[in-house]
C-alpha cells in the first residue's frame, strides 16, 4: 500500500490525475460484483486504461441498465490496455467467508494481467492483502474513478452471464432475473424447492432455511442429500 493514501482519498474525483502526476503510468482499477447475493460466485476485475481515457456514459455498474452495461463492456474490453477477472465459487465463499473470497478473486484478477500495473486503485476502504503492487483503497471509487467504474462493469456483466447460465440448469429459481440476490421471488423459490449447490449456505437466509428443513424432517427419514448437485 502507498505510504499515505489520505490526500488521494480526499480528492477522489481527481485521483487518477493525481496518480499520473505522481509518476504512475500503468494504473489498474479494481472492483467486484456479487458480495451480497445468496447464490452464485463473487467476481472481481482489474482494468488498466490508457492515460486520461474518457468513456462517455461510464458509471458505477449498479447505476446502469443491463443494456448500458453491455455496451460499455464492449468499449472497455476494446480500449483497455489490459484487464483480468477472478471468480470464486460459493463453496469457497462458505469455507473462507465473503471478504476473504473477494480478496481471492481480486488477487486472481491481478495475476491474470499480462501487463504489470504500477499502481492499483481498489474500490472500498481496505487494501488487498499479500499483493506487492502499490495500492490505494478508494472509498466510493466506483462513483468517481474511471478505471474502478470500468472494473465494476466488467465484473457485473461477467457475473450476470454466469447467473444466466445457472438459470438454464436451475430454472425453478429464476437466477436470470434476480442474479442470486435475496428478492422475494428468490426466497419463495428456496422455500418451495430447497437450496441448490450454488447457494451460499453460510448466508443467513440460506442457513436458516436449511435448519428449518432439518427440524421439519422426521427422524429416520432424513434425505441423503438436501443440496442438489450439478451433474457432469
TrEMBL record:
GO biological process: DNA replication, removal of RNA primer; mismatch repair
Enzyme class: hydrolase
Keywords: Cytoplasm, Endonuclease, Hydrolase, Manganese, Metal-binding, Nuclease
A GO term from the CC aspect: cytoplasm
EC number: 3.1.26.4
Main location (coarse class): cytoplasm
InterPro entries linked to this entry: RNase_HII, RNase_HII/HIII, RNase_HII/HIII_dom, RNaseH-like_sf, RNaseH_sf
Cofactor binding, note field: Manganese or magnesium. Binds 1 divalent metal ion per monomer in the absence of substrate. May bind a second metal ion after substrate binding.
Primary role: Endonuclease that specifically degrades the RNA of RNA-DNA hybrids.
Protein name per its UniProtKB record: Ribonuclease HII
Organism: Candidatus Desantisbacteria bacterium CG23_combo_of_CG06-09_8_20_14_all_40_23
Phylogenetic placement of the source organism: Bacteria, Candidatus Desantisiibacteriota
Gene (UniProt): rnhB
